[in-house]
Amino acid sequence: MIVDLRSDTLTRPSREMLDAMMTARVGDDVFGEDDTVKALEQQIATMFGMETALFCPSGTMANQIAIKCLTNPMEELITDQTAHVYRSESGGIPFHSAVSVRTLRGERGKITPALIAPEINVDSITAPRTSLVVLENTVNWGGGSYYTLAEISEIATLCHANALKLHLDGARIFNALTETGDLTINYGQFFDTISVCLSKGLGAPVGSVLMGNGELIKKARKIRKVMGGGMRQAGFLAAAGIYALDHNIGKLKADHHHARQLASALKGQYYVKSVMPVDTNIVIFEVAENYQTATLIRQLDRHGIKCLEFGKQRIRFVTYLDITQEMIDETIMVLNKLELPEKSSGN
Length: 347
Ligand SMILES: *Cc1c(COP(=O)(O)O)cnc(C)c1O
Known about the structure:
- By secondary structure, the protein is α/β, with parallel strands linked by helices.
- The chain folds into two domains: 92 residues, Aspartate Aminotransferase, domain 1, CATH 3.90.1150.10; 236 residues, Aspartate Aminotransferase, domain 2 (3-Layer(aba) Sandwich), CATH 3.40.640.10.
- The protein has a seven-stranded mixed beta sheet, with helices on both faces. A four-stranded antiparallel beta sheet has the order 9-10-13-12, with helices on one face. Strands 1-11 form a two-stranded parallel ribbon.
- α1 packs across α10, α2 packs parallel to α10 and α3 packs across α9.
- 48% of the residues are buried.
- The protein binds pyridoxal-5'-phosphate.
């Protein structure tokens, strides 16, 4: 049995999802003639209480388009130092938008009005104008930590008072909502733009959606085109997204349960120094100093368990739709029987 815990992007479309894709009505979406893409865009915008949306090939593209729409060159945005938009999108912010980034040290990737406020530049000839705040929910590098809507509301108030725009990288927003119980419909009022990944825990093979008001999305559509992201019969992919929204949101709860089981199995293992709190579907743990991360990963791989090195002496497990209870049990069994050599002194 192979248990691949490297990422929730590894989901494969189910038989039922493939059926929905195969029978989708499609057209040329660059001409605005794909009814399935339009249906997906309308469905998700309505869910979040936003005007409209744009189907994008990736979350990276959706985020980068949002940042380009919400800023001008020479301005600055504020986000946490671990934000995906900053550290995992290949330097896209300066490349696409000619904008600088002010990074904050949030608590497990979560920033607050108290952290943001002093970092807003006052208007001057020398300082870049601060124009945007970017939040991530859940926070990947925070080990799947999440904001509540109440916390978001306070940040939105600060942004509003300072004429700052607010973008949500909601790649895993449904994982956050599964825990907080907040409703999607209440999100739209707080953000100028929201991106959501369909190809992570929700199980679609490809695609993210960017939401915003009509004028912004019109501009976003143009920017998607200049980035080469205008897709033709994309309805086959959008159909998977619609299927995911209709059927897979409720299944995230099981992923969170699986993640907590993995975390408790890790705690107390001789090769584990500490395990980050598990809030959603991500488990990050620190490997004890006496053991090599690479060796641990190799040993797990030999037993069919795949995971990612996530910073120095750290490993990440992610649970998702295709990870079954049987696979979790198997992983726990392997974790319990691992025999690792100690690092030899002097290397
Ligand atoms: C996965 C992810 C994205 C988007 O990634 P793509 O691979 O470009 O779809 C954006 N933000 C966060 C926090 C993510 O985890």
